[in-house]
Amino acid sequence: MTTTTARNVGVDIQESEQNRAVVEAIEETNPACIVQHMPGLVRITCPKRLVITRDSVEQKLGREWETHEFQMAIVSYFGHIKDWDDDEIVIAWDH
Fold this sequence. Notes:
Blueprint: E1 8-14, H1 17-29, E2 34-38, E3 41-47, E4 49-53, H2 54-61, H3 70-73, E5 74-78, E6 80-84, E7 88-92
Antiparallel strand pairs: 1-3, 1-5, 2-3, 4-7, 6-7
């Protein structure tokens, strides 16, 4: 029997006060994610796909947030950006 392990996707986010709310929102939306705090950045990995929703970030920030603001927070990511619109960002592998 062959077992397939799900490939992780993830994102490295610059450590800052504002980005802390983004990290908390990602953790809440993706309960299977693993969050690692390193000097200057936070690495978030998740099996198969990682979802960032505008609504969850806005709830944590306490203000309106546009998904394009995420570009200022990320240092790098691994996986493919499958969807990026006004309401949601999805990082996943093609297969």
